[in-house]
Amino acid sequence: MILYYILKPLVIILNHTPRKVLHGIAKFMAFCLWHISKDRRHVAITNAKILGAKDPVKTARQSFNYTFMAYIDIFYAHRVNEDYIKNHVTIEGREIYEKIKNEGGQFVFIGGHFGTWSMLATIVPQALDTQVITIGRSTKNKALDKILDELRTFERVKYVTHRGAMDKLSSYINEGYIPGVYIDHTATEKDCINANFCGYKVPVIAGIPALCARKNYPIVFFFGLYEGMDTKVILKGPVYPDKSLKPKERIIKIAEDINKVYEEVFTKYPEQWYLIHRRFKRVELEDGTMSYHIYKESK
């Protein structure tokens, strides 16, 4: 844990750094990666093309900025308070949340690595007056995991990692917390199902669709759009599990519904999606076989 005590002073400094300075650091890092990493640049441009961006190169370049801004905004997230919500946050689709809340049952928040994703865990609970249990991925480094846990845990927010998360969810749900997760399209084969997305069948981590299918939990989607220094929270849904389907079919249908909403939002604002990641590195072809060549073929 020596690394923790080495990094902690830097974290404290960044936690008190003005947001404009943080964004300046983020844009410098984005500039460096764009010019240094030909591979990441190619991946982002390919993803932008798949999303149908009018200018894939410009979109990919903008995505680098937004990606690093989201990374570094984690050091600002704990400063989000009532005044910030009042002056810097707007909500599109609040009636969706009110509808699902009035139904009285449990539901799940699902978002994506898009726009201000690193701040949504603090914005949404305060803006909607609720409590959220967020699910993240372990770095497999105890020091980094401890720092991330500190950065992601707030008064209204609990944080758990993917491995073993389902075992912890039930107790938090019973305490009134709403599960919130960003579903990735790069899940390992044993953890995923394949579902249509932007013309391809891509892996979707199966845990949350399976939970929703088993417990009959509806889904409310939440995304945070950068609007300068402000955030526009976009709510979509709700999506309900189809109880007329068999369990496996129900899970696949939920995954398909999730991807439809993702596609709607990401194609509208492609520059704010996390394009530097290989989202389509493993896709299912029409004959059921898997292809690993999307990024190689586009070179």
UniProtKB/TrEMBL annotation:
Q: Which domain of life is it from?
A: Bacteria
Pfam families to which the protein is assigned, alphabetical: Lip_A_acyltrans
Q: Cite the GO molecular-function annotations of the record.
A: acyltransferase activity
What are the protein's UniProt keywords?
Acyltransferase, Cell inner membrane, Cell membrane, Membrane, Transferase
Task: Give the chief site where it resides.
Answer: membrane
Entry GO CC: plasma membrane
Q: Where in the cell is it found?
A: Cell inner membrane
- Stored InterPro entries: LipA_acyltrans
Q: Which GO terms describe its biological process?
A: glycolipid biosynthetic process
Lineage of producing organism: Bacteria, Pseudomonadati, Deferribacterota, Deferribacteres, Deferribacterales
Species whose genome carries this gene: Candidatus Mucispirillum faecigallinarum
The protein depicted here goes by the name Lipid A biosynthesis acyltransferase
